Amino acid sequence: MKRIPRPKIVVALVAAAALAVALGATGAVAASRALTGDDERRALLDDAADRLGVEPSELEDALEQALKARVDAAVDEGRLTDEQGAELKERIDSGELPFL
Question: Whole-model pTM?
């Protein structure tokens, strides 16, 4: 039987969900230290941006654009409808997705 490859957007969303779970666990520890989820999100972006030698806002913008590009690719490939793609992009813009 032929194995059907997983769509890249699904893999990306699963990875984002796994990160959300990891951040959730980190969030529990952070809560005990009076840090909010927003504090952890900001700390993660700041740390990654520092390691890359870029501004945190640049990294956040790049991640948002990369996610939107993946959504567009999924729509183009027929894995998502136009409506689903638009909804995901709205969620990206609103910051509803993990770590953004």
Answer: 0.59
Angle at 49 between CA 44 and CA 50, to 5 degrees: 100
74 CB burial (10 A radius; 0-12, 13-18, 19+): buried
Q: Which residues of 55-73 are buried (b: 16+ CB within 10 A; e: fewer)?
A: ebeebbeebbeebeebbee
For residue 49, give both structure tokens: 């941006």
Would you say 88 and 66 are in contact if contact means Cβ atoms under 8 Å apart? Answer: no
The answer to whether 85 and 72 are in contact (CB under 8 A) is yes
Dump pLDDT digits (tens) for 3-25: 555 565 544 544 555 455 555 65
CA distance 52 to 46: 10
pLDDT in tens, 21-69: 555 655 555 455 566 778 888 899 999 999 999 999 999 999 999 999 9
